[in-house]
Amino acid sequence: MTDGGRVRRPWVVGVSGASGTPYAASVLRALLDAGHDVDLVVSRAARLTVLDETGHAFRDAHWREDLTRWLARGADGTPDAFDPDVGRVRHWSPGDLAAGPSSGSYPARGMLIVPASTACVAGVALGLSKDLLQRAASVTLKERRPLVVAVRETPLNGPTLRHLVGLDEAGAVVCPVSPAFYGGAVTAQDLVDFVAGRVLDAVGVKHSLYRRWGGELGGGARNVNTTPPVP
Ligand SMILES: Cc1cc2nc3c(=O)[nH]c(=O)nc-3n(C[C@H](O)[C@H](O)[C@H](O)COP(=O)(O)O)c2cc1C
After folding, report:
1. What's the gap in Å between 96 CA and the centre of ligand 1?
2. Could you tell me the domains of the chain?
3. Are strands 110-116 and 89-92 parallel, antiparallel or unpaired?
4. Secondary element (H or E) of residue 38
5. Structure confidence by residue, pLDDT tens digits, 81-91
6. Ligand 1: distance of its center to the CA of 33 in Å?
């Protein structure tokens, strides 16, 4: 729990089995760039989406090298678009219900579920705690810590909509992975980073992932890559 006398106060990042592993990669890179500690839980189903969307496995026994390769990949598929340092990441297996984030006394800051499947939304809304990811989310809610749920599905059916209302009423921030174009996005990475930036905005983490609205129309026609980062 301590790191050279320093108390670790990590953000728990849960990656569930919805499409959108580049969103998770962008959030993770930005948290690490901002100097935050991260506790990572990748669900069993998310192993399928990581494999499908990156071409590489995510394995508990090799999580550090698999995560580094995943975070180095750009949203357009470039394998070495980033140079991540995963030294501040602690990995927990999704079946490990004795893991730190399964208890409210573990000093987590809060939790970001990116992306969140509809199954995950249902499980958290109903308090199923079927795995560590869902248990950590339930703990986050009961401890009144910030929980962001970046749901990814379209269209949404009635049960999912009701579960999302339930999560909102329980104090979570429902943050659909819904990219915007007003920041001048021109690449897939720009769109991914906009969503990741809005997730981080919800918990007050500083980043320079997208250009904020400045009150003047026309910004969307300017290339986001030609403007300075958000301070
Ligand atoms: C390649 C692939 C893509 C998927 N994409 C989505 C998705 O975008 N949204 C969603 O709700 N479920 C999606 N699923 C289904 C979930 O993985 C499935 O509901 C699973 O039970 C979720 O489990 P988890 O919430 O424990 O990760 C996808 C499954 C696969 C294999």
Report:
1. 20
2. 2-212 (3.40.50.1950)
3. unpaired
4. strand 38-42
5. 999 999 999 99
6. 28
Amino acid type, 169: E
Distance CA 6, CA 119 (A): 36
pLDDT bin (cut points 50, 70, 90) of residue 148 is very high
Q: Which one of 117, 134, 167 would you pick to mutate in the ligand 1 pocket, going by the greatest count of ligand atoms within 8 A of its CB?
A: 117
Q: What is the pTM of this model?
A: 0.95
User: CA-to-CA distance for 74 and 50, rounded, in angstroms?
Assistant: 13
Distance (Å, whole) CA 49 – CA 46: 5
195: Cβ–Cβ under 8 A, 6 or more apart, which residues?
23, 26, 150, 175, 177, 178, 179
Strands 11-15 and 38-42: parallel
